[in-house]
Amino acid sequence: MALLGLAVSQMACSSLGDKLPGVTSIVTPYKIDIQQGNVVTSEQAQALKTGMPRAQVRDILGSPLMTSVFHADRWDYVFTFQRQGQPLQQRKLALFFKGDALERVESDALPSEAEFVSSLDVRRSTDKPPVLQATEEQLKAFQARNAAPAPAATPTPTGTAPVAYPPLETTGAGR
After folding, report:
1. What is the value of pTM for the model shown?
2. In the chain, N or C: fewer CB atoms in 10 Å?
């Protein structure tokens, strides 16, 4: 019975898209940005020189994402970035060592640091900034809409004694 109930509920959910196509295209679940690996920019790759020791390469690029026991003379730096509604960014950089010295570098096209940062900031609107100056007509219309009503005269009570309230705390009372 439980399996039958589960199957019926799954069929009902899948047919919701047929009944309300506009809603399912507008409402989508939130998916977090997923970044994996090391960001390596073209400036960092240009700083690498053949013959550099491993420690110096690690200082420039950070620890490699992958090292292999079977390929001890190869370091792989892989970077992926996935954001909802955008194509997957993926870059690879492989370093080959001979002993302790860097022998050669193989990589995909790497962005500069400025290009990488600008690719992350795609949610910013590219529309023109709003006009921050109002015309005379707009100012007059605003004043007309927001004109404060004249304050009404408040009647003052005549012949009544002012209200006196007892003190909040009594002096000398123990706590």
Report:
1. 0.52
2. C
